[in-house]
Amino acid sequence: MILDVGAATGLDVIAAPSPNFNDRKTPVSLILLHYTGMESGAVAIERLRDREAQVSAHYVVREDGRILQLVGEDKRAWHAGLASWRGESDVNSASIGIEIVNGGHDFALPAYPAIQIDRLITLVADVMKRHGLGAECVIGHSDVAPGRKQDPGEHFPWGRLAAAGCALATPRAGEPVADVGSGLEAIGYALDPGLDAVIEAFQRRWRPACVDGNADRETRALIAALADRS
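User: That's the sequence. What structure does it adopt?
Assistant: Structure tokens below.
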């Protein structure tokens, strides 16, 4: 089933069905953002629609802003892999997956075009509205899979999404958290991959200028501020 999301927002969504989905086990509570991380959008879309690949997403946003829908939002797309957020290990069931065409770290982590982010914001806002989700529900693949995934990467303009109400804004740092692990768990991170990997994932989202896995004062202060919001 391909949903007509354009009715509410004026978005022109192109149906490009993928066979890679099954039934959800939980209601939608997250929007998970990815980069495709391949040499081109065409190659990525082909893979997301390849039955043998066993991967998919609900939407793909191309560099020129065109939006493709591969899986209906009522179904469970296969985009998160081994992942966890706020104790939910079936992230595929709990999320809408949006792939953003970008070469990622394997292809020099190119900048995201403005038109692509404009259209992404419109899509995310529409999904949020229809599912009753807040800005805190929009997260990156690296957040749910620390140490395994890096997308959407340090160049992703989270600030633009936050300004539009489609992601949390970076908080004003306060007093550093005393227990880094507990603070990260309070935000939503699972510590299973190891604390250093989780700190690095946290920094990739909240302090992308320096992603070193070091729990320095600035990092601990940001963890404290975000844990207080949770």
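The first strand starts at residue 13 and ends at 15.
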